Structure formats: C-alpha cells, structure tokens
Amino acid sequence: xxxxxxxxxxxxxxxxxxxxxxxxxxxxxxxxxKYFDVTDDAGDVDDxxxxxxxxxxxxxxxxxxxxxxHCAEFLTTAGxxxxxxxxxxxxxxxxxx
Length: 97
Ligand code: SF4
Description:
By secondary structure, the chain is mostly beta strands. The protein has one helix and five strands, in the order E-E-H-E-E-E.
C-alpha cells in the first residue's frame, strides 16, 4: 500500500542540485503558494497586513511567507505528509517512496 507521504504525492517536486535543500533530500510542495501571489490588499491603507484571498485562490488552505514577502517555499522531506496528499501516477517498474 502506498504511504500518503510527500514522496508519493503528485504535488511534490524533489530538489536537485544546486537548488536549496537538495543535499537534505528536500522537495517543494506545490500545494502551498506564496502568500502575496494569492492575496490582494483589502483596501485598508492603514493596515497593509489586511489581505484577502484572490477569487481564483478561494479554498487555499496553506500559504508560504517569509520575512521579506518576496520568496517563500514549503520544503519537506519525502517522509512528510498531509491531508491534501494526492497520489502520483507511478509508472510500471518505478519505485514508490
Ligand atoms: S505537504 Fe501534502 S500536498 Fe504537499 S507534497 Fe506533501 S503530501 Fe503533497
């Protein structure tokens, strides 16, 4: 039986050299977009942190945000997992993690 982990999830992209995290065996979850990519300001000029999800991203359940707001990714090991797991199609002969 396939384990419901990132290594078996179609949304996971393993890092390859020289990308950050490749030596740790990390991969990027494609299900966690950047906060500023999926939000718009709510029109409150006094509160720049008041943001709402863009219409096309309604239903987004997690976002990535770093201190700068410019670059953030959710990196996991192959053994991590979450409820949003989506099984990838495994070609005959291809090993599962
Ligand atoms: S964190 Fe969840 S959705 Fe993202 S790659 Fe892992 S199992 Fe898939």
